[in-house]
Amino acid sequence: MDQQTVHQLVKATIPVLREHGVALTTHFYQRMFQHNPELLQIFNRSHNATGKQPMALAGSVLAYAENIDDPSVLAPVVNLIAHKHASLGIRAEHYPIVGKHLLASIQEVLGDAASPELIEAWGIAYQKLADIFIQAESQLYYDATNQEGGWSGWRPFKISRKVVESADITSFYLVPSDGGALPRYRAGQYTTVRVFVPAWNVVQPRQYTLSDAPNGEYFRISVKREAGNNDSPAGQVSNRLHEAFHEGDIIDLAPPFGDFFLDEDSTAPVVLISGGVGITPMIAILNRLLALNSTRPIHFIHACRSAEVFAFGEHLQQLAATHTNLQLHLFHDQGPVGNKLAQIAPLQLSDLTPVLPLVEAECYLCGPVGFMQTHIAALQQLGVSKQRIHAELFSTGGIHV
């Protein structure tokens, strides 16, 4: 089948993908886990249960179909997903399994509408996309392994310290149990933790930001205990880390990955904007800037529910007292104020424009979906170009400006 025919057939499925894409990907995951249950240890079971994973995949499949004539426009999304895949240990040998179940799902969901020609076209298109990911991920694996202290796959780490940062965030200081060196990473990147979840009888991976600047001595992750609510269940992994893992225990980690990190070559002012546990990459970026003795103006903007859940407050206050280029802008939804630099008020970036150097600043954001959407839109309305807005969403799929 020639390329033009493949593209025509794939693009013909765009209306169906828009209307039934989530149903297709939901069926796909159910089918794949039924026939290949060993893959349950790679994927986030919670994201599948809540529908986040099927929705993310449906969006990716639709975007590929819409841009199949020039998939290079998807490069930022491919890069983001490749980092996620590498952090989870997805390898080239997994792609034929995924492809088999994806094509079977298209046939089973579409029924008579899935002609042999359509299935053949999607098979060719899928293989081209798989090759793109395999190449990108192979380079990431190579780079992660071929550096001092680097490794591939999983590596055992010992919890050297466990520190309560707030009512729902605890930091874990992790050192290699093999006594070997640690690789460098970029402030803002994450590692992946793998733990056994008895309730599900399966190993589960979770990605957590490395919440301190690279130092060659330890990795630090700062984990929010996900209590659960009417919209989502309690976090199996986060609660297990809080309750069952202690100083001296061993835990498996993947190498650092992630496409969200500080641009150390820039000399522009830095505006760091975070909500809730989204503070973790911002602390890493801030610590890195100060470790470099940077003279760049730094504005640290953080919003959270209350002083009770405000993490790293004392650390931030100490830094602000000793670094004249750092200004803090701290907001709590409700009182009382536990930090003298915080105020009880909603975060409104427009209120800070008299002191923020937005015209030339590099802006970094991290937080929940609604927080991100609100403040990215606010930055754009205030004249900040898309090229200077860098965003990390703590959820499946990521967010792009």
Keywords, separated by commas or semicolons:
401 residues, Globin-like, Elongation Factor Tu (Ef-tu), domain 3, Rossmann fold, 3 domains, six-stranded antiparallel β-sheet, six-stranded parallel β-sheet, disordered C terminus
**Shape descriptor:** globular
**N→C terminal distance:** 36 Å
Radius of gyration: 22 Å
The helix content, as a percent range, equals 25-40%
SS content category: alpha/beta
Number of strands: 12
Biggest sheet features: 6 strands, antiparallel
Indicate the multimeric state: single chain
Query: Averaged pLDDT, please?
Result: 93
In short:
With 401 residues, the chain is α/β, with parallel strands linked by helices. The protein is built from eleven helices and twelve strands.
Account of the 3D structure:
- The chain is of the alpha/beta class and 401 residues long.
- 39% of the residues lie in helices and 19% in strands.
- It has a 6-stranded antiparallel beta sheet with strand order 4-3-6-1-2-5, with helices on one face. Strands 10-9-8-7-11-12 form a 6-stranded parallel beta sheet, sandwiched between helices.
- Strand 7, helix 9 and strand 8 form a beta-alpha-beta unit.
- Helix 2 packs across helix 6.
- 36% of the residues are buried.
Secondary structure elements and pairings:
Blueprint: H1 3-11, H2 14-35, H3 45-50, H4 52-66, H5 75-88, H6 95-110, H7 116-145, E1 155-164, E2 169-176, E3 190-197, E4 202-209, E5 219-224, H8 236-244, E6 250-253, E7 270-275, H9 279-291, E8 298-304, H10 313-322, E9 326-332, E10 342-344, E11 362-367, H11 369-381, E12 389-393
Parallel strand pairs: 7-8, 7-11, 8-9, 9-10, 11-12
Antiparallel strand pairs: 1-2, 1-6, 2-5, 3-4, 3-6
